[in-house]
Amino acid sequence: MLARMNVFTKMTLLILLFLIPVLILYTYSNRESVAVIENEIQSATTNRLSTFASSIESNIYQLSLYGISIGQDSSIQEFQLPDNRIPYERVRLSGAILEKMNLYNAASKWHSTITLYFPRIRQVISTEYYDSPAYDEKEFSEPFPQTWVYKDNSFIWHTTEPTTEMSEPGKARLITKISFPANQLAALLDQNKQNNRGDPFLFHAGLGVISNSSANTTLMTTLADQLKSLPLQEESGFRTKLDDTEYYVSYIRSKSLDWYYVDYVPMQQILSPVTSSRNLFYMSISVLLVMSIVVIFTLYRSVQLPLLQLVKGTRRLSDGDFSVRLDNPKHNEFSQLFIRFNIMAQRIQALIENVYEERLRRREATLKQLQSQINPHFLYNCLFYIKNMARMKDEEAVVAMALNLGEYYRYITRSEKDLATISEELKMATNYLKIQALRLERMSFTIDVPCDILDKTVPRLTLQPIIENAIIHGLEPKGEHGEIRIRGVSENGINIITVEDSGMGMTEEQFVKMRHDLVKPLDEHMGCGTWNVHQRLTFQFGDESGLIFRHSPLGGVRVDITWRDNMDK
């Protein structure tokens, strides 16, 4: 396949084969690089969110632990004794307890509100100075949840002392209530956003979101709607597309708050350097491809077109069109080549014309010679027949042979032209067949040739040698009644006269030998009748004309005499 391509096609394929592997390898490398960076982004986002969640969970755990341990303080235990009814002592203990709670708040990273409820003495101590709550039994009629509760933009956690009274807080010695505002978490989200590229927030399917102060509320709302529709796990991440931008979303469930820490980062923003590098490479490939196309087009105009013109000229020259001339208006190496080609074509044309004229003269001389070889052959056969009929005292046969022989020589001695019509050939064949029918007395013949063939011309004495062979080699050796049929047909400019007999026939080996003898030079061991007819038809009408031998349905041999109309001049 590659060997059949021209030089231009091979060069084009070579350029493409150079660019395609480079493009494929870079695309694969770019995809691998992007995949690695995306994995790093996902891992970094998850790790950053995990660190942030761990920090919050640690602070919440400290608050919860303080709520449990505060009940062990001696001042609190002394304050809740029912028999301690001295007002001064209670005020002193209350101040000491409040001082300790304020010291904890001062040491803690978070600002929280700590409220102590003493059900036995119905007293309340709180770090909330401006809104000191009163003791309300209805507030402790329901069991406390085991987790932090979000209410009025604050997270609240209750514990009892002893802890076994969480289900019936009204019976406890001490109830500790710790709360911190949601904006405390928002401040931590702001701090986390300043240190990183993400946009973290807290999400709860039923309670909404807690965002940082500079959050994109539109994106956050859309993302919250997606999170509501997903079966969230303890910790995971996914990729999503928001406002035609792809994001990676990571989330972790808070075991203390029962909320989800969520963070999302735009993938394209981080991948922009890689994308810019990729686009620059593709632009370079495009420029290289355009330059390659320009080079290919220049080669096509300067090399391929002249080569195609030269190939077309040589093909026409090889097909026999020696009048072909090439024209190249450009002054380059090909113009010199075209000039040499034109000189060569002109000389070959002159030489072929001389050879053709000489061939015509030789063909005419050969036709004359071949025709002269047939005349004695037929004459000898006729004279021997007359001799035999004279011995047999068959005057009618002698007269018929003499008359037909006279007609025959009158026909062949008309030397003004070498061709005869089929009508003239059939008339001569009829005379010959009548002579043979008289001689054999056991032969019949039929002639069925359409009128449109009768005016066609063939070399003189084309039919007679074929009919003669059919009688001598086919019917006579068989020793019984025989038949000869002559038919004609003309289709698509091809004319065929068929002569077939019911004689002895020939074997396949004899057919092969006969076909071989028709095309080789004549020697003394060959009969000259059919050979001369075949040679004259070939000389006159071309290589596709001549004799074709095959088996006849009558049992003998069928001979097709074939020639074309376009050579019939």
UniProtKB/TrEMBL annotation:
CDD domains: HAMP. Keywords: Cell membrane, Kinase, Membrane, Phosphoprotein, Transferase, Transmembrane, Transmembrane helix. This is Sensor histidine kinase YesM. The keyword Amino-acid biosynthesis does not apply. It is found in: Cell membrane. It comes from Paenibacillus vini. Gene3D superfamilies: 6.10.340.10, Histidine kinase-like ATPase, C-terminal domain (3.30.565.10). Residues 301-353 form the HAMP domain. Its main location: membrane. One of its GO terms (molecular function) is kinase activity. The chain crosses the membrane at residues 280-300. The gene is yesM_6. PANTHER family: SENSOR HISTIDINE KINASE YPDA (PTHR34220).
